[in-house]
Structures are given as structure tokens and as C-alpha cells.
Amino acid sequence: MENLADKKKAILESTLDLIKENGFHGTPMSMVAKHANVAAGTIYHYFDSKETLICQLFSYVKGRIMDALFEQDDESLDFRVRFFRVWRGLYEFYINNLNSLVFFEQFVNSPYNKKLPKPEHDTFKPLHDFFTLGIEQEYLRPVNPKILTVLAHGSILTAAKVRMAGKIELQEPELEQIIEILWDGMALKKK
Amino acid sequence: MENLADKKKAILESTLDLIKENGFHGTPMSMVAKHANVAAGTIYHYFDSKETLICQLFSYVKGRIMDALFEQDDESLDFRVRFFRVWRGLYEFYINNLNSLVFFEQFVNSPYNKKLPKPEHDTFKPLHDFFTLGIEQEYLRPVNPKILTVLAHGSILTAAKVRMAGKIELQEPELEQIIEILWDGMALKKK
Amino acid sequence: MENLADKKKAILESTLDLIKENGFHGTPMSMVAKHANVAAGTIYHYFDSKETLICQLFSYVKGRIMDALFEQDDESLDFRVRFFRVWRGLYEFYINNLNSLVFFEQFVNSPYNKKLPKPEHDTFKPLHDFFTLGIEQEYLRPVNPKILTVLAHGSILTAAKVRMAGKIELQEPELEQIIEILWDGMALKKK
Amino acid sequence: MENLADKKKAILESTLDLIKENGFHGTPMSMVAKHANVAAGTIYHYFDSKETLICQLFSYVKGRIMDALFEQDDESLDFRVRFFRVWRGLYEFYINNLNSLVFFEQFVNSPYNKKLPKPEHDTFKPLHDFFTLGIEQEYLRPVNPKILTVLAHGSILTAAKVRMAGKIELQEPELEQIIEILWDGMALKKK
DNA sequence: AATGAATGAGACTTCATTCAT
DNA sequence: GATGAATGAAGTCTCATTCAT
């Protein structure tokens, strides 16, 4: 027998899968219900509306991204090594969770995103903090950490999407080179 | 009085505007019709279906992006200067054409994109060619040009989206710094 | 309160009535819904599309015609008497169920009929069997039973349609004469 | 260059062909226009509306049926031979003009037919007259000629439709038998 | 006479949501 | 809590008809 949490999770995961394949408007509630093995009405015990479901799914996905961001991190390592691991950690999360990547991108570019109250600090705050630390410790150039976040996340996202598009030209050595180039540009050139 | 091209263009532009505000499924054909000042049925003279309209709009937007990419370019300039100008050219196009940016991002992450036959070479082929040239002329590191495209386009897109999100922290000096960091990482360190 | 079968039947019966009056294209689904006292969407729980509804209605009507064919029959009677009763049985069914007659005729002459897989044996198989028996028992001429089916059904259908057209000239004695003429032509002239 | 009559005829013939294939509601005016090689608007020079077109087409088809009815007739022949020729004449017209047969049947069972003022005497008046003559000349039983019309036309129509349905079991000898049976039933048994 | 782009009412159908069980 | 039949507003699209050329 299942408990509530199981069903709620099944609904969220089903929605995530289906939206990747069919988009928002190609994913009716009836389809979510069938995929999650619940009745259509059941979804409304857990979520007020389709919009609520999608917005809660966004929080759910954000949480998983945040978890992934520093899962591989180890503060005892050299900062450069940490940067390489963080970059790859998020990249691999996206590759292994394409439905999250696709959903996240669809969501942030959709009108749903407008309706959401801006969060105190966003999903990538930990990344921002990480770069702030790197600057303080004089590993990185003394610039607005936002800049480094943009560069890092932009490259991860784009690399993952290029890979997802079936262009498998981005292999191991290429990934390493991307990170190296980024690091070279971002790192503080000490005397 | 209008001619055919006018109506078709009005429909495309209206769709672009409305999808930015309301997304695909928040933009019924009736709304497009009203916004474009045509009858609902008229849209179907120019486009077989809503899907066709959206896919043709994608081609239309791709064309504009490609035009924007090298509008500011000047082959007689130094390669580093050209890189700065190309980066800013696309960035500014996105900022000044937020509807194109939002639509493009929504489209590529949507199921519509799956149905489209993969183009021979994509929108960013000119960027790829630009980097290939830079490598040949020994301005840039001898890596797969794809890598540089990922880095450049990822940073432009992300910067534009951060700016669009209302986080106006990215001002002139920050933009300059982003490009500088990228350039430093990508450039060939000559002896 | 109604059960499922009730609603499905109400939809079928409403469609039958309305198509008699208005034809296929004069009977929108909204009209069926109103006449059957259900919401428009409800029809789509029971039938995939208007086409499906009409094709299922055809099966439904065929069933009723087959039921009517031998309702009046009594195998213990003389074959000639049975023939007269069968002829009148179907004739009266048509007269009392004009909507079925009209629908049936509209359907078989329509493109819907083309799409249907040909049935193993058709609605009038029982009539064919009846004539086969009559031939075996030497009441009827030894011809292809198909011929007799054509003659019998053709005359019933045409008589019913003449009557329906408001030409009330076909009264009891005339009907009797039609059957007699047919019988005389079909019967085996015994020595 | 074409004249008016040519275009009007092309429209009528196109409509006849298309309605056989697609039915009334599957045959938009635009399709008729394309098939007849005229502009949509041109149809409205010749016919007030789609309904008018279809009703005029009915008259057109009726005319052809009436022409066919006695094309093969020869008053100098024996009445029995004439009957056989008239039956086959109409049967063959239907077989060779399936679009007329299908259209006629669709029309008479459709609501269009209701709106038409009842004609003074209908399409099959010549058949009725033929049978009246046969009775007067004591070839046929002294019954209401209407009866004989029903039997004859019913059998012709049904035989043609059986043949059209692809059931090719009705061959030459069977046709001959059908007419013989009818004749035997209808003919006056002289002493 | 002929054209065919344009119109817009209305068709078919979908789907978020409700509610009696 | 769970169900899923029922709802009906709203969506996409069609097509008879018009009218400026």
C-alpha cells in the first residue's frame, strides 16, 4: 500500500517526464493521472490546480539542482579542483536528468515564471557563494561574482543542451577544455 | 491597404509578441488574429495549423538572429575587437528583441523542436566559422571550435536572461568583464 | 439517476432522430448533446469522434433491423405465409422506425460506409438463409438466393420510402398485391 | 475558350464526382472549385448557394435518369421484351454512372429533399406510364401501376447497389433471372 | 465574367476541474 | 482519501460566402 507522499511524488515525477516529452500544453492532467496511476481527481488533493502543480514541480526540481550542485564538492580540496568538480557535477546532473533540464528551461522561459514571487535568493545562490569565496581567497579575479555565475552556468547549460541535441561531438576531452578555458579566464593571475 | 506579405508578417510578429507574454498555450489563434488585425480564418491561408505557424516563426526568428550576429562585424578590425563586437552585437539583439529571445528559448526546449528536421548547419554556424578563423589565424587556442561557440553563446544567452529577469546588476562594466574573461580564457597565449 | 448505458443509449437515439431530420452535416454534436441532455464533452466519453458515433450508430441500427426481420416469423407455419409475414415485418419496422430507415439509407450511401470493414455476413444474411431454406424445401425456384434477397429487400425498402414520401396511395390491398406478385414470381411452379 | 454553359456543366459534374467520394459535408465549395478549374467565387455566378447547387444537380441527375429510362426502348417490340430492355437500360445506366446513383440516393434521403417542392410527377412517371400501358394492353395484371413501379425500380436500384458494393455475384444469368421472376409475377396469366 | 484573399460564424474536440460515490 | 464520469468553457480549424480587383 502506498502513502500520501508516494502518490504526491509519483505525480510530480510523472509530470516531469511527460512535460519533457510533450511540453506544458501537451500534458493534460488526465495524462499525468494515468502515468502516475492515480485518478484525475486525486491530483487535486495534492495540488490546487495545474498551475500549482507546475509551480511546485519547479520548486522540486530546483531542490534537486541545488542538491546536485555541491554533492561532489569537497572543501578540503584545492579551489581549482573544486571548480572543476562543481562544473562537472552540475553538468552530469543535467545529462542524467534531462527531464529536469528541459522542464527547468521551459519553466523559466514561460509565463508561469512571471507569476512566481521572486525568491530571496535563487537556485544558483550556492554557486554565487562559491565564487565569492574564491574571490576572497584570491583564487579568482576580483569581479562581481554574478559574472562568474553567468559564465559558469551558461557554459554548463549550453554544453548540456548541445549534448542533449544529439550532437555527441562534446566528449571528455572537450569538456575538460571548456572548464580549463573558463578557469584560465576567471582565475587571478598571481605574480 | 496591405499586401499579402504584410499580413503574413503581421501574424508572425503578433505571435512573437504574444508568446513572449503568454507562452504557447496561452496564445490562442483568436488572440493572434485580433492582435494582427486579421480574421481568424486568414491565419489559415498562410499557415496550415498553429504548429506550422510556430515552426515558421522559428525559422523567421532564426533568420533575424543570424542577421544580427555579424551586423556589427568588420573584418578589417583586429580579431580581439571583432570578438568583443560580435559578443555585444548578439547580446544587444537579444536585449532589444526580448520576444525573440524568449520565443527561441521556449521553442528549442519544446516538443515542437523535436519534429523539425535537423538543419544542415544551425543558426550559430557563422559563429562557429568565426572561431574557426580565429584558430587558423592563431588568435585562439587550437581547440574544437564547437567549444568556443558553446562558451560564447552560453554566456551571451545567460547574460541576456539575467538582465531580462530584472536583475539589473549587469551593467556596462560587468559586460565588458565577462567578455574579457572569456577572451582571456580562449585566446592563444603567444610567447 | 441514470447509469452509463442510459447516457450512451440516449446519445445514440438522439443522433438517430436528429440525423433523420437534419442529415449528417446538419446535426452538430452540440445539438446531439442538447437533445440527449448531456454535456458536449460527455459524448466523447462514449465515442471517440463524430465519425465513431455514426459508425456505432450504424451497428446499433443494423442490430435492430436484424431483430425485426424475424420477430414475426413462426417456423411452424406454411412457407408462403412465413414469407408474407417476414415481408410485412420488415416493412412495418421501417414504417414505425423511419429514423432508422432514413439513417440506414444515408449511411450506406455515404463515405462513412467505405471506411467500415466489410462484415463477415451482412444485415440481411437471415433473409438469405430464409430463402435458401425455401429453395431446399422446393417452395421457391432453384436460383441463387441472393436474387430473391435483392427482390424482397428492394421491394420492402422502396415501398417504405414511397409511403414515407407522403404518397399514401400504398394501402393495405396494394401491399398485399406487391407481396403476391413477388411470391408468384419466386415460387416454384409444382406440377 | 470556354463559354458559360461549359463552366456550369463542369461545376455540376465536379460536384457529382466529389459527392460520390466524399458526401455532401465532405465536399466544400473550394474543392468543387478546384476540381472544376474555376475560382470559388465563380460558382456563385451560376448558383446562389451550395444548397441551390445541390438541388439543381438533383434536377440535372433526374434528367439523365429519365433520358436513360427509355433510351433502349422500342415501341414496336413485344411488351415483354420492352420490359426486359427498360429494366436493363436503367440498371446499366446506374452501373455506368455510379456517381449519379450515389448522389441520387444521398439526396432523396437527405433533408435537402424535404425542402424541394414536390414535382408534379416524378422521375419515374415514364415508368409508371409504361406500366399503365402494359395493363391496358392486358400484358400485366390489373393492379395499381404504382405497385409495379415500386417492384421494378426497387429491384433495379437494389441490384445496382449490390453490384456496386463489390459483391460481384450478380452476373448476367442472375440479372436475367431477376427480371424473369419479376415478369412472371407481374404478367397477366392469360387463359 | 472571373478571381481568390478575406471573413467570421460555427463546427468538432479537448481538458482543467468538480462532485457524488 | 480516492475515484472517474460528467461538465462546459474555450481551443483549433473549416468553409460558405463576399467583394475589391
Which class of secondary structure composition applies to the elements of chain A?
A: mainly alpha
Please report the first level of CATH classification, the CATH class of the largest domain in chain A. Mainly Alpha
Strand content of chain A: under 5%
Radius of gyration of chain A: 19 Å
- Looking at how many chains there are and whether they match, the oligomeric state comes to homotetramer
* Beta strands of chain A, count: 0
Secondary-structure element pattern of chain A, one letter each: HHHHHHHHHH
Tell me, what's the shape of chain A?
elongated
Count of the domains of chain A: 2
Indicate the mean pLDDT of chain A: 90
CATH architecture label of the largest domain in chain A: Orthogonal Bundle
- Helix count of chain A, per DSSP? 10
Instruction: Report the CATH superfamily of the largest domain in chain A.
Output: Tetracycline Repressor, domain 2
Approximate helicity band of chain A: over 70%
**CATH-defined fold name of the largest domain in chain A:** Tetracycline Repressor, domain 2
The two chains with the largest interface, and their residue counts, are: A-B, 46 and 46 residues
Largest β sheet strand count, sense and barrel closure of chain A: none
Rounded to the nearest angstrom, the distance between the terminal CA atoms of chain A is 65 Å
Low-confidence stretches of chain A: none
